[in-house]
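The aim of this short unit is practical: by the end, you should be able to scan a pair of folded records and say something sensible about each. We start with the first protein, listed as its amino acid sequence and then its structure tokens.
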Amino acid sequence: MTLLRIAPDDRPDTVLLHTRDDSTVVGELARRGVLLRRWTLRGGDATAHGDDELLWLYRTEVDEVRERESMKLVDVARLHPDPTEEWRERAATARATFLEEHRHGENEVRFFAHGRGLFTLHLDGEVLSVLCEAGDLLSVPAGTPHWFDMGERPDFAAIRFFQEDDGWVGDFTGSRIAERFPRLDDLTEPRP
């Protein structure tokens, strides 16, 4: 189930909203121009499926998103835990790539077929932390400052949609705001 946490951008410890209520999460995001939808999970364990097979399982929904959002390219990004040092290094590098505030020239659209990821959006004086889990499709509007955290032990498979080949490339703002707000692992630990 999706988690939404909202705080003022200048007071990370002041929580204005912390909820897993689906209708509240969808409504609060929609008021800010962010789309969140739920897709029915298919095919059992997504880690057992290759990228092409995963895309085939969700072909109807993928085609609808491509049409609605004029997306030309679709792929799968995934990381699954592995005990090797090589995996730990690759996971740490992948995580660090998106932990700084950035924006894209096109909508950032992701569907989580497995696992989870934290999108943190910086909008109009607020910071919205959106913990997406398996079944969530999130569409972050073009130009929205945000950052993404896959956690210290990334475990996810996400279908990504792009209008252009370089649509995933971030325009980094230079702000250090992301350092002051909770990361994925902070939000998934039990609350006191």
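Turning to the second protein, read its sequence before its tokens, just as you did above.
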Amino acid sequence: MTHRFGSEVLKTPLDAAELEQFNSLNTGLSRTLGIAVTHVSGDKVEGYLDVQPSHHQFTGIVNGGVYCSIGETLGSIAAVAAAGVPAVGMNNNTDLLSSVSEGRIDAVAVPVHVGRTTHLWRVEMRAGDKLLATTNLKLMILRPR
């Protein structure tokens, strides 16, 4: 199966088969943490993480680094979907607002600025209506010369 992700600007969201393929290829830290991506388009990326004890810090709540990683993952995917070329993070500013020790963390990345050479994506992470964290992720777009 061929895939559109990373080779073109996604004007339409990935379909179910493309999402399945994308998640199978999305290895590394995303897979280690258990981040599942449920929507990818050039203007929004959605995903979730089911909290496990391995995500906890010593006090029994989700480690703040997990939220940073969710923000970095979804924001990076969003920038590539919007630009159609690779992107790399330049700054990850994650504000930790509340905590959980179980359940699901739902996350949505939306654009703040989509330029030719840089993007800024805001990722909100929630448990139900409870806002847990926000990430502002600045990325450099790696266009061919």
